[in-house]
Write a structure and sequence with these properties.
Layout: E1 2-3, H1 6-9, E2 31-32, H2 35-41, E3 49-55, H3 59-70, E4 73-78, E5 83-88, E6 91-97, H4 103-107, E7 118-120, E8 125-127, H5 132-137, E9 140-141, H6 146-151, H7 154-166, E10 169-170, H8 172-181, H9 190-202, H10 206-215, H11 228-247, H12 249-256, H13 266-275, H14 283-291, H15 297-306, H16 311-333, H17 347-360, H18 364-373, H19 378-389, H20 404-411, H21 417-431, H22 438-452
Parallel strand pairs: 3-6, 9-10
Antiparallel strand pairs: 1-8, 2-3, 4-5, 5-6, 7-8
Helix pairs in contact: 7-9, 7-10, 9-10, 10-11, 11-12, 11-14, 11-18, 14-16, 14-18, 15-16, 16-17, 16-18, 18-19, 21-22
Length: about 450
């Protein structure tokens, strides 16, 4: 047992001064536990507090009292196990009934030693029966017991996620237990599994831990097609992304942006965010996810739905899978595209580029870095990237020269599917450089009608 000095607490979560409620609401036997204690001891600070308290009794009543006093949100998370949450603007506080006859018994039921450290804010005492502080000092993820991991198999993935999050090393016995218990992961709800995988895909240290996850057999039930080549590509994606930060900052920033739906419908976009658990994936994350999928979209799509990805995330991944072969074919058909600045102005090439941009849409940043990781040279991609980065480019970002109403007015046409076909033909003609003005567009449309008649 260690007694911390008041001055050593600073602005960490261990200091009640940082909490959104007064310590006086907590009974003397209350202890702060879990990640908030671990991160405070590692001097990892966050503006958003995530506090976990355990107490021998009265957990739900304490949470309800605090919520009423501060007019904060109250959520009963588990009535049977007596766990409740109070939601403040600057963070959340979870209150749980102690498991077992003593605090030590509760700590021995936790996942890893670094998360089995308790702190009494009243007495400033650290309770560390499993030597978690020593493992923090040595940067080791060590299980409390294999039985605890088996009790909740998601902890198997969490071990690798926290290793990536903290830059820690997995203790050999813990890694061995993960390999043994790997088949149990398929019994966990898809939403929980996806959340842990998502962090490994978004973390800079994720690729190395993903390889360890694959070696432990934790990928097979959720990403059946993933192999060593998939993980090597994810590693290349991260390396390329970091290199772009200095080589092409504008492209780096574009790839790091949160994905957005092809549709501009705000309610649909909001629904997609809700389906993804409130998090926002980047285009880089979608390229990494595509690397774990089979090339056949008819097989990939059910796997993505099974993992409960949002509609916009699934659309992004499937678009990358569909358009990468088309991009490779486009560049193969025009191998001299990088030799001359005017080589891509030929109508056939511009038409092919226009078709590609129409299909890939807003997913182009994910396709771009996926293409680079697949072996396509930057010099070959640069003309297409420059088009996408130019909002005035008529090939990548076509703007209608005429509206349907304009066509009907100038050519004396009635509403019909023919109007849509004409508008599409005009878009392609403008992308090919055949027309620019409204007058030229009307003449071009009239010629099409004469040829049809």
């Amino acid at each position: 047992m260690t007694v911390l000095q008041q001055h050593s607490l600073g602005s960490s979560a261990l200091s009640p001064k940082t909490w959104p409620f007064d310590i006086g609401f907590l009974p003397p036997e209350t202890h702060l536990v879990g990640g908030s204690v671990r991160d405070a001891l590692l001097e990892r600070h966050s503006d958003y507090l995530d506090l976990d308290f355990v107490m021998p009794q009265g957990a739900v009543e304490t949470a309800a009292t605090i919520a009423r006093h501060y007019r904060a949100g109250f959520v009963l998370l588990d009535a049977e196990r007596q766990i409740a949450r109070v939601v403040f603007r600057q963070g959340t506080a979870d209150f749980a009934q102690q498991v077992g006859d003593s605090l030590e018994a509760d700590l021995f039921r936790r996942d890893f030693t670094m998360n089995a450290i308790a702190y009494n804010p009243h007495t400033l005492e650290l309770i560390d029966p499993l030597n978690g502080c020593l493992d923090l000092e040595h940067c080791i993820v060590r299980m409390v017991s294999a039985e605890n991991l088996a009790e909740d198999p998601l902890r198997l993935l969490r071990a690798y996620r926290q290793a990536a999050q903290l830059g820690f090393t997995m203790q050999p016995e813990t890694a061995a237990a993960a390999r043994t218990l790997a088949p149990r992961l398929k019994t966990i709800a898809a939403e929980r599994v996806q959340s842990e995988f998502h962090y490994l895909l978004t973390s800079k240290r994720g690729p190395a831990q993903l390889k360890a996850v694959w070696e432990a057999g934790l990928l097979s039930d959720w990403f059946e097609s993933a192999g060593l080549s998939s993980l090597e590509k994810i590693d290349r994606l991260e390396t390329l992304f970091q290199r772009l930060k200095s080589d092409w900052p504008l492209l780096h920033d574009l790839i790091s942006q949160p994905i957005r739906a092809q549709s501009s419908n705000k309610s649909e976009q909001k629904k997609n965010v809700e389906m993804s658990g409130g998090r926002r994936s980047s285009w880089l994350t979608m390229a990494k996810l595509a690397s774990l999928m089979p090339d056949d979209v008819t097989i990939a799509e059910p796997q993505l739905w099974q993992l409960k990805y949002s509609r916009s995330e699934i659309h992004a991944v499937l678009t990358v899978l569909k358009t990468l072969p088309k991009l490779q074919a486009l560049l193969k058909a025009a191998p001299d595209i990088t030799l001359s600045p005017n080589s891509d102005t030929a109508p056939d090439n511009r038409r092919a580029q226009y078709a590609l941009f129409q299909q890939v849409g807003v997913v182009f940043p994910a396709l771009c870095i996926q293409a680079l990781a697949s072996g396509i040279e930057m010099a070959a991609l640069r003309p297409l990237i420059n088009r996408y980065l130019d909002p005035e480019d008529v090939v990548a970002h076509p703007v209608p020269v005429l509206s349907g109403q304009d066509l009907m007015s100038h050519l004396n046409l009635r509403p019909s599917p023919q109007i849509g076909r004409l508008l599409s033909a005009l878009q392609i003609a403008r992308a090919e450089g055949l027309i620019e003005t409204q007058g030229e567009a009307i003449v071009f449309a009239r010629q099409i009608l004469e040829q049809e008649s």
